[in-house]
Amino acid sequence: MRCVAYGCSKTHADGVSFHVFPKEVKLRREWTLATQKTRKDWKPSKYSALCSDHFELECFEEKARFGSELGVSGKINKRLKPNMKPTIFVKPKSKTSSQSVKKKRRSTAYEKREHNRVLQSILIPSMDKSESCETDNEVPVMMDMQLTAEKETQTTELTVVHCACCSHAKPKIKLKNSSFQWNGRPKMMDKGNQIFPVEEVRQLPEKQTNIEPDSDFNEETDSEEDESDAEPCYDEEKQDPDYIPCDDDEDADDIEINATPPDVYRGRKYLVCENELLAAFNTCVMCGHPSTSRIASTIGTFCRVKQECINCDFQRIWSSQPFIKNVPAGNLLLSAAILMSGSSVTKSLRLFSHLKMVAICRKTFNEHQKMYLLPSIRQVWRNHQEKAITNLKEDESVVLGGDGRADSPGHSAKYGSYTMMDLKLNKIIEIQIVQVLSHYIIASNEVGSSYHMEKEGLIRAVNFLKENNIAISTLVTDRHCQIKKWVRENLPDTKHKFDLWHIAKGVSKKLEAVAKLFYCTGSAALLKTLDVINNPRLCKDIVMMSEKYQTSRLEAFHSTLNHFAPKMTHFSYWGQTCRTFLAGLHYNENSDREQAITAEGKERFCVAFPKFKHGGYSVKKVYKDPTYDYVDEIIHLVVAFCQEGNKKPLQETPGALCSEFIHPEKDEAVAQHSSRFC
């Protein structure tokens, strides 16, 4: 942090304290007017601050005044009294024409090459062949080329001929020949060894970088004023929690933010150790002498390396990755990869922690998920859904299968998903998420218990299909009583069929229970068996049993959904919704995979031993590896949203289960807490 007053650029290292402009409107205006006495038309930002040198000693509390009067050196935490105003400012001196100094224009790269070429044309012809330096080795003139630390230096005495039209003295001067061994890429611009007289070696500017500062780096900075009055903000409106500031604030202006970065998602990434990374900057690319390097700052997976040459004062700043708007590309792609793979962010970050690898934090992931990832997933799902709806409209007899899935086992589920699948094409058409709410705060579009989630999900899915002018000819579901009644009353033109596996499962459980009764023998066993078989409900359901289409593919989709949204993990409403959409995209893309073939051209099979067969085996087909084209589509949309700088806030979610409950004070709850173990 630097002081925003004119002529003052003090930092914390100068032993001063900083005081941010107050939020109170009247007092903030007085501070602004006082600062504008020396900086005309200047306006403060939310990071602007003044150092303690611009306040009278009486403006501080007694502790700071006592330390200053005793001459205590070092940093003192000075605290201002309420409603204090700055009064000490240095007026700018007016510059006259005689006092103005014209800055020396830096020579361009072309002028440097011409200077070296002319110098070589003068020196090299007069060199003796036996003492001449080898100039066959080519040294690349590139800023970011990797050079080895091996350097050979030799000196020789040469006769310099100034010109052909006059006779000058021919002094003997020493020349320095520097040759490098380099590991560069092909198709690079090369240049031969450059030979300079020791007395005439040009010095580089005091500070030279191969990266120009970007004025868009900080949106809060006034482009016409000094940029030292605002702290860098990398994560749009608020600073990234993973940001580690550099030692000097001057490095913050040297970073280049690429508004339109290359396709960083397509490029490969590597895991690099810090020592090996810094070792790549141990040699100056300009003079070949040893140089110092350090990690200037980090933002999650992003890092900046600052290199300084001891010999020629060359400096540069290297960035490990480009920026997408104000967000490091690696941080955003890491958040996307965690979500697209169906991984848990907690376990993923713990993995990085075990590797001692610098990564983002949980707060940054949640910010990326909320603003970019979830809106992109929902948009891609809607695009794929529109194509599926268009194909479904061309079918005269629509056969759909529906089934529900709870996010946790038992009757304690919070979310329930109901899926509608086109059984002819084996594609997911619609997914509805239903949240359980308390009976005290139940909304018109939510349910009060997990038992009613499946019916509510079916109602929403059918209404969605009606809005898209799709008439359901046949609907295949399980034997849910509420669904059976609702379809009979609200879909009279739809044939309602039951899945065969669900009917057989219900009957087999009852028959196994009868077989375990120890007193059930002879005629008693027969009567119990007849009661199960002749059950009136079972007889009616057998008539409605589906002959051709079943919901077994829906069960396979639920297995895929368990990978993206496992039942042992709790997610937010939109987190559960978008992970369900991801499962739908993955299933639709890989539902029609072909069977894998061996090197001999034969179809591949595997033998499995399932538990329910009690030692028996099953032969299964081996399919080709799944594809993930939908991930590429989502990530490209995420990058596009981030480049536009437009956040895509999601709709409001249903209230939490405890939103309407009375929340006690934490201190009171802790005081009343009691345990039987203490």
Short description, anyone?
This protein is of the alpha+beta class and 678 residues long. The protein is built from 16 helices and 21 strands.
Structural summary, described in words:
This protein has 678 residues and is of the alpha+beta class. It folds into 5 domains: 1-92, no CATH class; 126-200, no CATH class; 234-360, no CATH class; 373-499 and 547-590 and 632-644, Ribonuclease H-like superfamily/Ribonuclease H (Nucleotidyltransferase, domain 5, 2-Layer Sandwich), CATH 3.30.420.10; 500-545. It has 16 helices and 21 strands. It has a 5-stranded mixed sheet, sandwiched between helices. Strands 4, 5, 6 and 8 form a 4-stranded antiparallel sheet that branches. β13 (323-324) and β14 (327-328) form a beta hairpin. The longest helix is centred in the middle third of the chain and has 32 residues, at 362-393. The radius of gyration is 37 Å and the shape is elongated. It starts with 17 loop residues before the first strand and ends in a 6-residue tail after the last helix.
